[in-house]
Amino acid sequence: MKAEIIAVGSELLTPDRLDTNSLFLTQELNKLGIEVSRKTIVGDNRADLRDAFAQSLERAEVVISSGGLGPTEDDITREVVADLLGRRLDLNPQVLAGIQERFRRIGRQMVEANARQAMVPEGAQVLENSRGTAPGLLLESNGRLVILLPGPPDELKALFAKQVQERLAKRAGGLRQFSRELRVTGLPESDLDQRIAPIYTKYSSVNTTILAAAGEIQIHLRAWSKDVRETEIILDEIVEQISVALAENVFSTRSTSLEEVVAEALNMNRATISTAESCTGGLLAERLTRIPGSSSYFLGGVVSYSNDLKTAWADVPAELIESRGAVSPEVATALAEGIRRRTGSTLGVGITGVAGPGGGTPEKPVGLVHIALADGGATRERGMFFPGDRERVRWSASQTALDMVRRYFLRATGKKPGPKV
Amino acid sequence: MKAEIIAVGSELLTPDRLDTNSLFLTQELNKLGIEVSRKTIVGDNRADLRDAFAQSLERAEVVISSGGLGPTEDDITREVVADLLGRRLDLNPQVLAGIQERFRRIGRQMVEANARQAMVPEGAQVLENSRGTAPGLLLESNGRLVILLPGPPDELKALFAKQVQERLAKRAGGLRQFSRELRVTGLPESDLDQRIAPIYTKYSSVNTTILAAAGEIQIHLRAWSKDVRETEIILDEIVEQISVALAENVFSTRSTSLEEVVAEALNMNRATISTAESCTGGLLAERLTRIPGSSSYFLGGVVSYSNDLKTAWADVPAELIESRGAVSPEVATALAEGIRRRTGSTLGVGITGVAGPGGGTPEKPVGLVHIALADGGATRERGMFFPGDRERVRWSASQTALDMVRRYFLRATGKKPGPKV
C-alpha cells in the first residue's frame, strides 16, 4: 500500500522553514506497512493545491496532508479538497460547539473567522483535535483515502495517534513494518560496513541503512511483513550477529543516546563523575546534565580556559603546563586526576585540545585533543585528531570522552562485550 | 519567474532523512528573483522520477533537481531526463578524463561504474563539479531550463555558486530579492507584533515574516525588485523604524547569534567573564566558548551541581544555601559574585534553578530560574519562570543570561538603544 504526503503552506517554500511533519508521518505509516512514495510541498494557492491533490490521488491509495486548516483566509485545504471531490461544505454544529467551548475555557471570545474551521465536507469523518481548534478530516473517494491534518506538529501527532492510526491499520491489512536500531562508536564507517555487510546481505527481506554522524554511526534495520513472530526472530538474529561482529563498539540497541547509556552505567554502578574541560568549553558537562536526574551522578565540573584556572581549580602544576604545554597528555591527565580529587567523585575526566579555527601549530594542529579518565588507579589517556570545524571538533571530543567512560564500565564490570538484546 | 525543486533519493522518503538542499536552493533562487512554487521529493524509481520531471516542466520555467547523479545502478536522474526530453546520452571524453584524473590524484583506480557519470545528454551543458566526480548538467527544452545537481550538500553548493548562479541571473532578468533580518530578545511575540505591525503593514511591497523560538524572535523582511537603490532604501527605512519601536530589545540586524553579540561587546570593552552554573549544567559556558577566539574574554566557569561545590568553587556560604535554598535570588547572587572574585574577571554570572522534569515544589516549580550578573558594584538578579521541557528551560535560561550581559554593556557604554544599521 502506497501513500503520498502533501505539506501545505507558503512558509514551507521559503528558505526559513522545512516540512518536518512528514518524518513523523513516514515513521507511523511505515509501521503500518504503508510506504511513502512521494512528498509534495505546495504553497497556499488554490490552483497549485488542487493540482497536487488531484495528481496524488491518481497515484496513491492514501493521501495525507498537513496544514491549511486554520481560521485565516490563507487556509484553503478544506475547501480545495471538498471542491475537487465534488462535496458540499456544511457548517457542523457539533464541531462549532467544540470550538466555542475551547475558547470559553481559555476565557476568550471566539472570533467569527474560527467558524470556518467548523465547515465539514459532505460524508467526511471528523477527527477530533484535542490540542487545537482545527479538527482533522477523513474522506473516502473511489476507494482512495484522503486525510487532512492540522499543521502544528503537536496537534498533528496527537491527532494521528488517537484518530488516524487505527483506521489506517484496519485498511492496511496485515502487512506491517518492524525495525531495529543499533548505535556504534569507535569505528570508521568503512570498517563497520566491511564487518557487517556479510551479515545483512544474507537477509534479502531486511532493509539496512547506515547513517554516519560525528563520532557515532546508526544502523537501521527494517522489514515489512505480515508475520510478527517470524520477523521479530529474524531481526533479533541480525542484531545479535551484528552485536557479536562489532562487539563493545555497539553502545545501544534501544535508540538511546551515548549520554543516556553513560548515565545508566554511572547509576548502576553507584558511581559519580566530575569534569575539567578546556577546549570543549563545558559541552561534556552540558551533555552529562541533559539527562533528568543527573544530580545523582554528576557532582560538578570546571571549564578552565586560562592556564591559571587549570592550576587553581584542578591543581595542574604550573611547571607542567610550562614544560609540556596546555595541550598535552600530561595536562589532560592532571586535569582528570585533579578534578577527581577536588570533588571526591568516583571518576574524573580531563579534556584539553585545539578546537580551532585559530591556535594550531605544526606540532599541535587544530583538531588535536587529549582526553583523560582518572579513577584513582592508573589514569587512561587518549590523544585524538578530529577533522572538521570548531563545532565538530568539540562534539567529537565530548563523544570520545563519554565513550571512554562507557568502556571503562564495560571493563570494570567484566561485562561480556556488546549490549544485551 | 517560477522554479520547482525535485529532490531525488529513496532515502529521502524514510523517517531518517530530510531534503535540506532545497533550503539553500530556495535562498539562492530567491536572491535572483526566482520564486519556488513547489518542492517534490521522489525515490529512485524510473516511472516516479519521469512523472515528476514531466509535471514540473509543465508548470515551471526552471526545474532544479538534486541527487541521483552518482555511479550506482540507483542513480538514474541523468537517464530519465535525457529520455524524457528525447536526447541521446553520449560518453563525454573530457568529463571522463576529469573523473579519471580525480581518481589518480587520490591514488585510486577508477571503477567501471564511474564512467556512467561521464554520460552527457545531447545539447546539455556540463557544469564542472570541483568537489566530486558527478558533474552537474544544464538542459534547455522548449524555453524551459532543467538543471541537474549532485546530492551531497557541499558539492551542490559549490557547483551552484560557480556554475549556475550567473547563468540563472542572466535569464531571470533584473528582478532580484533583497532581504533584511532583525533578531530580538525580551519581548513576547504578540507584544512585538503589536509594536511593529503599524510599520510593516505600510509597506505592501515588502514581505514580513516573524519567527519565534525559545528566548528569541527573528523578523525577516523580503522585497522583490528591479531597483536596487530604491529597495535598499525602503528596507533600511523599515529596519530603522522597527529598531526604534523595539529599542534595545533588538540585538542584531546582521544575522548574528546572541553569543556573538555578547562576544563582540566583551571584546570591544576589553572585559572578561566567568560563569557559575547549576541547572544549565555548563550550557552558558559552552555557548560563550562556541565563538572562535573566546579565550580573549572567557576566563573560566564552574558547574557546581552539588551544594558543597557551590561553596567550594564560588564561596556561596553553606548557611545561605541552608536558609534560602539552593534555588534562590541570594544563591544566584552569591554564585555570580563568588566566581567573579575567584577568577578576577570583569563580570561574573550565576545561574540556579529547577530544569525539571523532577525537583519542582509548589513554591519553586519546574521552570523557575534565578540569574545574577555581578560587576563588583550592585549585582543585578532576575527571577524567571520558563515554560517547556528540561531542554527548553535550560536554553531559555542561558539566553536570558546572555541577554543580561548584552544589556549591561548597552547601559554601561551609554550607547543609544538599538543597534546601528
Describe how the helices and strands are arranged.
2 copies of one chain form a homodimer.
Chain A: E1 2-8, H1 21-31, E2 35-42, H2 46-59, E3 62-66, H3 77-84, E4 89-91, H4 93-105, E5 119-121, E6 125-127, E7 136-141, E8 144-149, H5 153-172, E9 176-184, H6 189-200, E10 206-213, E11 216-225, H7 228-246, E12 250-252, H8 258-268, E13 273-277, H9 283-288, E14 298-304, H10 307-314, H11 318-324, H12 329-343, E15 347-353, E16 368-374, E17 380-385, H13 390-412
Summarize the structure.
Chain A has 13 helices and 17 strands. The first copy, chain A, has 421 residues and is α/β, with parallel strands linked by helices.
Low-pLDDT parts of chain A are 416-421
The ordered string of helix (H) and strand (E) elements of chain A is: EHEHEHEHEEEEHEHEEHEHEHEHHHEEEH
Net shape of chain A? elongated
What's the gyration radius of chain A in Å? 28 Å
Helix-and-strand structural type of chain A: alpha/beta
Instruction: Kindly report the oligomeric state of this protein.
Output: homodimer
Helix content of chain A: 25-40%
Major sheet: arrangement of strands of chain A:
2-1-3-8-7-6
Largest sheet of chain A: 6 strands, mixed
Which percent range describes the beta-strand content of chain A?
15-25%
Question: Greatest contact pair?
Answer: A-B, 68 and 67 residues
**How far from one another are the termini of chain A?**
31 Å
Number of strands of chain A: 17
How many helical elements of chain A? 13
In round numbers, the mean pLDDT of chain A is: 92
